[in-house]
Amino acid sequence: MELSKQIKRHRVALGLSQEGLAEKIYVSRQTISNWETDNTYPDVENLLLLSSLFDTTIDELIKGDVEAMEKTIANDTAKLKIWTGAFLASSAAAVLALVGGIWVFGITGPVIAVIAALYVLAIACCVACTRIAKRNDVMTLAETLAFVNGAPLGELRAKRDRTRARRWVLIALTFALTIALGFGLGFAMAPHVFTIA
User: Fold this and answer.
1) Could you tell me which of 111, 105, 1 has the C-alpha nearest to residue 61?
2) CA-CA distance, 101 to 144, in Å (whole number)?
3) Could you give the C-alpha distances from 98 to 85, 94, 120, in angstroms and in order?
4) What is the pTM of this model?
5) Predicted confidence (pLDDT) per residue in 151-173, tens digit
């Protein structure tokens, strides 16, 4: 992205080290390093501070990056949809394997192994979704695009804060509900499996 080059160019032009720039905009030196190596992207507040310090507009700072951000958001959205679908499919398959497997074969090692593998796959899908969202900070990119297009940021920030506050709770609740449903169905089937002749 062009922003990383712009930050470094302006920093060098002002005769600032990464640490010096970090002190002026109240971030760590590592944050500046991450921006200059395209590992992370500054949020809206930091873009404002940078544009003020560099005596330039945000448009000039991020010129060329808007299209890249739009592609990143589109790619991340597609990946998140795929991983979410995989999570739902593996969770449903685990429940079906629990019910069908125990109904047909009883509680055996292979049935338990299949169920466990499907639950592990569901957990891996949740982790993949979380990593994609965290790594790319999709909400911050969306806020930046909204800012560039003149859209209000208040609702996006509020939504981001609500989403981040609930993310792990929703993942934990979904996982707990899936396990509870699976075990509930398993116990409901238990009389059929353990009938005494």
Assistant:
1) 1
2) 50
3) 20, 6, 14
4) 0.45
5) 565 676 677 677 767 777 878 88
